[in-house]
Write a structure and sequence with these properties.
With 39 residues, this protein is an all-beta fold. The protein contains no helices and 3 strands. The protein has one domain. 0% of the residues lie in helices and 54% in strands. It has a 3-stranded antiparallel β-sheet, with no helix packed on it. β2 and β3 form a beta hairpin. 0% of the residues are buried.
Length: 39
């Protein structure tokens, strides 16, 4: 039996500190980093 580790890329759109939409990316919903404006 081979055990594999799952890597789940995630993209989250949320509001930044000023209330503007912002995109955050990460892996397995950890270490989310600000990517930028979605537009």
């Amino acid at each position: 039996m081979v055990l594999t580790k799952r890597v789940i890329p995630c993209i989250d759109v949320d509001l930044d500190d000023e209330g503007d939409p912002a995109v955050y990316t990460g892996v397995n919903f950890e270490n989310l980093e600000y990517t930028g404006d979605p537009v």
